[in-house]
Design goal:
Layout (H helix, E strand, L loop, with lengths): L1 H14 L8 E3 L29 E6 L15 E3 L1 E6 L1 H6 L1 E5 L5 E6 L14 E4 L2 E3 L5 E5 L1 H6 L9 E5 L6 E6 L7 E6 L5 E7 L3 E3 L3 E10 L2 E3 L3 E7 L5 E5 L1 E2 L5 E6 L3 H4 L2 E14 L2 E14 L3 E9 L9 E9 L3 E12 L5 E13 L2 E9 L1 H4 L5 E13 L4 E12 L4
Parallel strand pairs: 14-22
Antiparallel strand pairs: 1-23, 2-26, 3-13, 4-12, 5-11, 6-10, 6-12, 7-8, 7-11, 9-10, 13-15, 15-16, 15-20, 17-18, 17-21, 19-20, 21-22, 23-24, 24-27, 25-26, 25-28, 28-29
Amino acid sequence: MRIQTKIIVSALSLALASLASAAELKLIAHSAQDTVPAQISSQTAKATTALESEPVQFAWRLDDAAALQAVATPHLASSKEYWDRRSADELAAGVAIPTTSPGAIVRLSPVGDASAKAIEARQVILRKGDQAFSNGAGMQALADSETLEKGSAPFPAGSTVFRIDPALGAGRFELQAATASGDTVVHVFEPDSPIRLDLKADRVSYLAGSEIRIDAQLIDGELKRSVDEITGLVTSPGGQVREIEFSVDKSGGYRAILPADFAAESGIGGLFEVQAFARAKGAQGQVLRDARTAFSYTVPSARFTGSARTVPVRMRDPVVYLEFDVEVAAASRYQIGGVLYGTDKNGSKIPVAMAQRAERLEPGVHGMTLMFGPDVLDGAKAGAPWEIRDLQLVNQADMGLQEQRVQALVLDSTR
């Protein structure tokens, strides 16, 4: 009888819950941290027809002590290596290998059809000054193509790897391979060198029409070093290459600035690779360093209009039910997500829950909702006033970020 009474009381509490009226809201003005499209395109991603058509919405509780990072930190690539593509004639005549510390690791990787004819390490002649080393002399940790193919390391087919004997010191070496039958990538890695090339984009993701900043810096120990030359390339998902130019910035580093306009290279977007090639003078002679990093590029087809509202819902408190207006230029399945922050007993904002919704939308303006119900808010260590942070809009056809607001919305009440 007692169980039945509880069920009846619970049912009545849901059925008789009062409906609050909808309250119109505006997103907080965007900041420099936000990713906001200047315009949207009606160009459609290729995969839209294969996407799920049914709407999906869910939420989950977050650890209130978690240190959430709304904006992903761009990857800082630190390189103690360089690479170059050499022809068979160049390898037969001998190619220079400048090093800055003992024990450089050299990898020879044939390109294209030449991969069937690997250069074995014992066929390589290594020279330093008037000394010549052959048949494996002057090398350590030999690994020929057969050994590498049996291992799990992701080396290109036909690769050979060896370490220059640290007893030979650093400086200029020459590598000669008379058996080379085609182009070969000569890759040199100096794990013990204090000299590295740092490379980083200022964002992880860019929208068409924005500005891309690529920073590079040659570091010796903890000190910045100038370079004699630094160049760079941006390669699209389709393999198209665009040259970039670096100039000295106020900090003594090097920066390349280019417009995020890759319509000719990639259409709607994708993952782009950035490479930088630096040359400088060092105590042991020439210093060479190459580095690579990546960024994503998206041609947005949807964006937030800036309008939002609370949604009346027949449900017991606590509940936060919100609707955000989204302008769509190209039909696709879009995903919205956001983190709900609440106010704890000390007046501090702490994360409470994350909610997402995905649905197919046609061109026009649509309302997309985020629901935080009692299932994720019961027992939370924080309550109203609420905030929505890390509000994101994504096109699921290619998972391209359409818009992101670090601090999106402030609510004074629970509904």
